[in-house]
Design goal:
about 500 residues; alpha/beta; Maf protein; six-stranded mixed β-sheet; 16 strands; about 20% strand
Length: about 500
């Protein structure tokens, strides 16, 4: 039987009783909700070097330097850097051999008096896992979902204690650390939509996997990372930007996937009020897709995202299987136009009523939610490999009782056929490409972009036979070196 999680009080006390831990707390915007726990449980004198709340903006600027936004990642990083550096500067010589120093910080916007603000915050810890160790760091972004300020502050204090406890006692088990962040809370109160590990204690941690864990554990419904593998905060990447999404399995990323996205982007950029230079393109993979064969296979997940990274794609992992839920999420992030590109086969599924039985209004309610914010669907044609016929928006078959609804959406240009596609790619299907890779048939390379083929072959993705690594050739012996060897051998012979 699994042991119960420690409560917030016992976690704070465990930190206070660990004689190695000593550091500072700096909190902006919601009082000193985290440090209060450590004062409350006792034995804080051995843990807290300093506690401060730079609540006033001018005071905050005087300490950490000016900034445009006070609840942002850069402000948090400035706080962590300065407070941790001060601890080391002041105390390293006197007690560095026995003390693992840390600095905890948060900058938060809790519910204001009128209830009109976004309730969110950045929180992090910079710490030494052991005395004299190199620094490690964890940063998270939280959203407070309680409707009362006092409840938000309470939840913030709890997640802060969880973060400190996890950093000190679970840093060797990052999966458990992530899972523990909502101990004694629930996803109805706090959402964690970004986490980043860095430093010596987390040198083997892949932050893309940690982003996946956030969604897998229900701490967030979506997570995002760049082609470089850097974790991103979706609300910052998508804020005030037009968004184009392609949903897929990307096993692997094929010429069709690339052509679909490029064709849709060309059409989308031509739309009124869409600046082509501002469009954010996203490759989205749903949790249902990752679980298609049962449990999530981390190797398979990383192979997919590495292939997308080779193509320069920003990746989103989401728990929004229903398109209307994805649309609602995206419309919450931006007021600019949103588009989703998909194949005709996916459009057929979109009009299948079996997916909407849980909604009181059924498919009509789902479509009302999907298209209410001027969302657009761009449709890539589907080739019948047996007959050679194309399924397009014009001839797509839907149920008779949905034909009027379908035609209405087409007439309003909310569903639009892509006519700028490359017909040479229509015979490419991911499942066939995957079979070719697994069978060792090099014909698969014709169906994927060159950069994708290179990484699949070089690293043996999707069951591909890896290219043999050429052994370095032995350098030729220079004449002078050969002469010296002969002289040395002669000398040895004379001496023996």
């Amino acid at each position: 039987m699994a042991s119960e999680r420690p409560n917030t009080e016992s976690k704070a006390l465990a930190v206070n009783l660990d004689a190695r831990r000593y550091g500072s707390f700096a909190e902006i915007g919601a009082g000193q909700e985290v440090v209060r726990w450590f004062f409350r449980v006792g034995a804080a004198a051995g843990t807290i070097a300093k506690s401060m709340s730079a609540y006033d903006m001018s005071v905050s600027d005087a300490i950490y330097g000016p900034c445009e936004r006070y609840v942002c990642r850069q402000r948090l990083q400035d706080m962590l850097d300065r407070e941790h550096a001060l601890n080391l500067e002041r105390l390293r010589e006197s007690r560095g051999d026995t003390t693992a120093f840390f600095a905890f910080a948060d900058t938060v916007s809790a519910r204001n008096f009128h209830g009109t603000n976004e309730c969110h915050g950045w929180m992090g810890i910079r710490f030494q896992a052991h005395p004299r160790d190199q620094d490690s760091q964890i940063i998270i972004h939280v959203r407070m979902l309680d409707t009362e300020n006092s409840l938000q502050q309470e939840a913030l204090g709890t997640v802060g204690v969880n973060l400190l406890y996890g950093a000190f006692f679970l840093n060797h088990e990052p999966d458990q650390l992530v899972e523990s962040l909502l101990d004694n809370l629930s996803t109805r109160r706090i959402e964690i939509d970004m986490i980043e590990f860095s430093g010596i204690a987390f040198r083997h941690v892949d932050n893309r996997v940690m982003s996946l864990r956030l969604v897998q554990l229900g701490l967030s419904n979506a997570a995002m990372f760049s082609a470089d593998g850097d974790v991103l905060l979706p609300s910052e990447v998508l804020r005030k930007k037009p968004i184009l999404v392609e949903r897929g399995s990307f096993r692997p990323y094929t010429n069709v996937n690339k052509d679909m996205l490029e064709s849709a982007k060309e059409k989308f950029a031509a739309e009124e009020d869409v600046d082509a230079d501002e469009v954010v393109t996203i490759a989205e993979i749903t949790m249902r897709n990752l679980r298609a064969n049962g449990d999530i296979d981390l190797r398979d997940f990383l192979e997919r995202v590495d292939v997308l990274a080779a193509s320069g794609m920003t990746v989103m992992i989401s728990d929004y299987f229903e398109y209307y839920r994805l649309a609602a999420y995206l419309s919450h992030q931006t007021k600019k136009k949103i588009a989703i590109t998909m194949g005709a086969a996916s459009l057929i599924e979109l009009f299948d009523e079996k997916y909407y039985t849980e909604l009181d209004g059924g498919i009509l309610e789902s479509f009302g939610r999907l298209f209410k914010n001027d969302l657009k669907l761009y449709i890539y044609p589907l080739l019948d490999q047996e007959t050679g016929e194309l399924t397009t928006v014009e001839n797509l078959q839907v149920a008779d009782d949905l034909r009027t609804l379908y035609q209405y959406l087409v007439d309003k240009s909310e569903i639009e056929q892509l006519d700028n596609y490359n017909p040479e790619y229509l015979s490419t299907f991911s499942r066939d490409v995957l079979q070719l890779i697994e069978s060792g048939d090099d014909a698969w390379k014709q169906h994927v972009p060159e950069e994708v083929a290179n990484i699949i072959e070089r690293r043996g993705f999707f069951g591909c036979r890896r290219l043999p690594v050429a052994k370095p050739t032995q350098p030729a012996v220079a004449p002078l070196a050969l002469e010296q060897d002969l002289l040395a051998a002669s000398s040895s012979a004379l001496l023996s």
